[in-house]
Amino acid sequence: MDVRPREFPSQVRLALTFFACVLGWLLSACADEPLRTNLPPSASDLTLLKSDHLCDEKAGFLQHHGGTALERVPWGSAEELRIPATRVESGADASFFFDEEGFLVGAMFTYPTGLSLKPYPVLRETLSELKPTVEFYLNVASVADRGNLDSSALYMTGDEKTTTQYLILGEVDSATLFLASFAIDPYHQLLSPYRQEYLARISKKDQRQDSSQVAKGADDKESLRALQQFARGETAQLAYCSVRNYEVAADAYRKAIALGFTNKGQLAEAHHKLGLALEGKGQLEQAKASMLQSLTVQPNRPEVLNNLGTVYAKLGERDKAIATFEKSVTLRPNYAIARYNLAEASESVNPKRAISDYETYLALVEGIPEEADRAAQARQRVKALSR
């Protein structure tokens, strides 16, 4: 598969770059790695995923590669399938990572001796427009024509559902590629080329050098299996590879919690996401308990409070719903959806408050296409309540 998202107009690209500073996932599965942000397009003339595609099913993959010598390696609770460079058209050692449901969630291509990007001007142009996610020194095996400790960098880009990462040596205009990975977003940190286990596939140790300057790579403080289960839950709950599956999501989040997280934010989010999966299954009391547990681990999270308020509303606990939405918007006054939910819950007991909150919501979402339908409903409710 040629993983090349559509090109955006220059003004959109500028907007993405600006908002990348303020948007993104606030929880990091790996404390040593940077947070995921909104990323610019990743046009490339180097096609690595050709006949295979992210979210392919393992059975079809195995059938397609039936004549290829595959090495099957455990990857936490999932599986990695390796194909040597001699049997890959791209000339790279290829690894394909499948989750427990048998979906291809990521792929990595390794060039132990490096691949010059000189013949790939489109990819070099893309890299030149990106800021390195990580810069470090890397001592690479079998690269005699490079400096002893050339500057290396990890670049990240992607589209709405996938992340592409390139690890290169040297300046972009004369870069050498050593690792490239493609992953659906829930797994992108687990497939970062900067992780220890992947850097080890290309790096070498040299006792003559200052070991403090040679990249050691990122290493998770959390259990690999716990992180995989959390990513599995996200994949199922957000329908990355198929229809939304709350059953699988709930199972995955429960397993992640049971395996344990030392990071309170990660643990709180696992309870929160479990609550959302249980809500999706219609198990509202259990969903409420899971979200309350999330707030016990890490209080005062506006998004958890907003979702808990929604569960209260579905259970008919109106007063608790209103109080919870109020706390959410107190903590984050510009939280548009919580403001809308507060207005909706307040209609029958405090119409004037509902009108005020609907109007605040409308001001917050003005010009946002994704909120057009809800905004139309808010205007209708303001009109009706004003009579």
Quick structural gist:
This protein is an alpha+beta fold. 40% of the residues lie in helices and 15% in strands. Among the domains are: 10-213, no CATH class; 325-387, no CATH class.
Structure characterization notes:
- This protein is α+β, with helices and mostly antiparallel strands.
- Among the domains are: 10-213, no CATH class; 325-387, no CATH class.
- It has 13 helices and eight strands.
- It has helices at 10-19, 58-64, 121-128, 196-199, 224-237, 246-259, 264-280, 284-297, 302-314, 318-331, 336-346, 351-364, 372-385; strands at residues 71-75, 78-83, 93-98, 104-116, 134-137, 151-158, 162-169, 176-184.
- It has an eight-stranded antiparallel sheet with strand order 1-2-3-4-8-7-6-5, with no helix packed on it.
- Helix 5 packs parallel to helix 7 and helix 7 packs antiparallel against helix 8 (284-297).
- The radius of gyration is 24 Å and the shape is elongated.
- Residues 1-38 and 206-214 have low confidence and may be disordered.
